[in-house]
Amino acid sequence: MPSPDRSRLTLFISILVVFAVVLYVVSEITAMSPIALAPAYMFSPMIAGLVVCFRRDISLSAVGLRIGRVRWLAVAAVVALPLVGVTLLIAVAVPGVGFDPAANPTPGLGLPSGILGVVATFGLVLGLGATVNAVFAFGEEFGWRGYLLWELAPWGFWKASAAIGALWGVWHAPVIVAGYNYPSFPVIGVVAMTIACLSFSPVYTYLVIRSESVLAAALLHGVFNGSAGLVIAYAVADNTVLSELVASPVGVAGVIAFALAAVGIALSGTPSLTREFAHDTARSA
Q1: What pTM does this model have?
Q2: For residue 30, what are the domain limits?
Q3: Is residue 196 part of a domain?
Q4: Considering the domain boundaries, does residue 1 fall inside one?
Q5: 20 to 30 A from 248, CA-CA: which of 136, 188, 198, 256?
């Protein structure tokens, strides 16, 4: 199998850097927080990936822009919910973190109380996560788990997942420093977000390989972003260290939940990663 092409990687990363600089410049000129501009920034990996694919004659279907295996797309959409559930269980098990059963994770919406409310909340999270959120998530995922996964496939499942996770985490730096996810810890937050992305990455890679489609990553990402608020709502911490760095979907609790999933992948048999991951010839059970 050919090695990753350095010139293509350099072009991809250079475009990401340009977008990060543009984000900062626009923020300064408009006096808007980078966080407010984040929805547009989310599409920079997709644009970078498309530029590389079009300029270097790489088929979009080869990098996963296809429907793929519908059963695994459904798994990708749903699996974020148990992962968030495990994250919540880990969070409330930490001393200094409590569970607030009266919390309202959907303020402003008149959802029913009791079990019906829980079902309605999860249904809402799944519906919005797999549609609206997934569109924005695709702006990232075509770059990360589309082009870049294809490019780094010669490195194998774990090394490619780690490299993508590291770049994914660092890419968040402009909005993290501005107060996103870890408002009390903007600098430490960049490290925390990178660790979180490293822990998330194998699960994303696994689902893309199994589904033979980058859409799986967009679905998982969209639903996870939509359901992460459940942890924030129900897990009540005594201080900001616990609330932002520990009992958080992108804190220690989330890292442990996804790390456990990665261990499950390793124990069940790590799938082979090749540049044919989006081709029918790569199909596995």
Answers
A1: 0.93
A2: 6-282
A3: yes
A4: no
A5: 136
